[in-house]
């Protein structure tokens, strides 16, 4: 199925991913919580999020805040709405892609993402859109999984598993050098920290978290 936004939604894998992230969300969250607390600290009252999924990052917003959620995968929307209501966050949900949010230029103080730049079709296009939407001095705060360094066993495994991984997780790549993409995207400042998780999802364990400022 292709939704109006141009996002390719698979009839079975769209709902599978919505269920997967509902069930596995707490486990993923436990693993990345320290990094998220650091980069999502002191978010403003209105936050734009790309690829909100089922609402993993709502806990980092204060109750009464507004989340402008750019999420093209409609099977995620019901759970996302329910989670926002539980957290007392006002939800402005846009069924659009991060490549083309439709948001006004220079309108956002903060854009956040977690585990999304691995899945978008063109990270360079998404980073350009984020820069367009942020006001001068605004920040993009991210937690993402990335390719392991060349020549490591994890990198070999990422290479071997890239096709079934991408098939299962709707185009997710475990082979992207997103640190280089972020540093080359034209932000005024990029501070990022690479780290490694110790989860059974080995291809997913090499990650970065940080803040990029316009
Ligand atoms: C791995 S999930 C992560 C969800 C959530 N951010 C989290 O941390 O649990 C990737 C999310 O990106 C969304 N997504 C995929 N392609 C996208 C695009 N082009 N623009 C915006 N979101 C996209 C998917 O629908 C999904 O919700």
SSE layout:
Layout: H1 13-39, E1 46-50, E2 66-70, H2 77-87, E3 90-94, E4 108-114, H3 123-133, E5 134-145, H4 153-168, H5 178-183, E6 189-196, E7 206-213
Parallel strand pairs: 1-2, 1-4, 2-3, 4-5
Antiparallel strand pairs: 5-7, 6-7
The structure holds S-adenosylmethionine (SAM).
S-adenosylmethionine (SAM) is lined by residues 7, 21, 25, 50-53, 56, 70-73, 76, 97-99, 114-116, 119-120.
Largest sheet: 7 strands, mixed
Q: In terms of structural class, how would the helical and strand content be classed?
A: alpha/beta
Percent in helix: 25-40%
Instruction: Please give the radius of gyration in angstroms.
Output: 16 Å
Q: What amount of the residues lies in strands?
A: 15-25%
| Order of strands, widest sheet | 3-2-1-4-5-7-6
Assigned CATH architecture: 3-Layer(aba) Sandwich
Q: Uncertain spans, ≥5 residues at pLDDT below 50?
A: 1-5
User: What is the straight-line distance between the termini?
Assistant: 36 Å
Number of extended strands = 7
Count of domains:
1
Order of helices and strands: HEEHEEHEHHEE
Bound compounds, please?
S-adenosylmethionine
Give me the CATH fold name: Rossmann fold
The chain-level mean pLDDT equals 94
Question: Could you state the CATH homologous superfamily?
Answer: Vaccinia Virus protein VP39
CATH class: Alpha Beta
What is the count of helical runs?
5
Large-scale geometry: globular
Explained architecture:
The chain is an alpha/beta fold. The protein has a single domain, classed as Rossmann fold (3-Layer(aba) Sandwich), CATH 3.40.50. Helix content is 33%, strand content 23%. The protein has five helices and seven strands, in the order αββαββαβααββ. It has helices spanning 13-39, 77-87, 123-133, 153-168, 178-183, and strands at 46-50, 66-70, 90-94, 108-114, 134-145, 189-196, 206-213. A seven-stranded mixed beta sheet has the order 3-2-1-4-5-7-6. The longest helix is centred in the first third of the chain and has 27 residues, at 13-39. The termini are far apart. Residues 1-5 have low confidence and may be disordered. The site of S-adenosylmethionine (SAM) has 21 residues, from α1.
């Amino acid at each position: 199925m292709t939704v109006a936004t141009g996002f390719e939604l698979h009839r079975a894998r769209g709902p599978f991913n919505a269920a997967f992230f509902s069930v596995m969300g707490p486990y993923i969250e436990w693993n990345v919580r320290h990094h998220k607390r650091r980069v999502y600290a002191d978010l403003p009252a209105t936050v734009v999020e790309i690829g909100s999924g089922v609402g993993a990052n709502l806990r980092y917003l204060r109750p009464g805040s507004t989340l402008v959620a750019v999420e093209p995968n409609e099977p995620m929307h019901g759970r996302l709405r329910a989670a926002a209501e539980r957290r007392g966050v006002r939800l402005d949900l846009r069924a659009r892609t991060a490549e083309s949010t439709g948001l006004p230029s220079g309108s956002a103080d903060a854009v956040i993402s977690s585990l999304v730049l691995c899945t978008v079709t063109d990270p360079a296009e998404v980073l350009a859109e984020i820069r367009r939407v942020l006001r001068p001095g605004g920040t993009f705060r991210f937690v993402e999984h990335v390719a392991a360094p060349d020549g490591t066993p994890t990198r070999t495994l990422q290479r071997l598993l890239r096709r079934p991984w991408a098939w299962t997780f709707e185009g997710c790549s475990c082979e992207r050098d997103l640190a280089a993409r972020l540093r080359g995207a034209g932000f005024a400042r990029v501070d990022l920290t690479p780290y490694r998780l110790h989860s059974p999802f080995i291809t997913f364990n090499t990650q970065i978290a940080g803040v990029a400022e316009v």
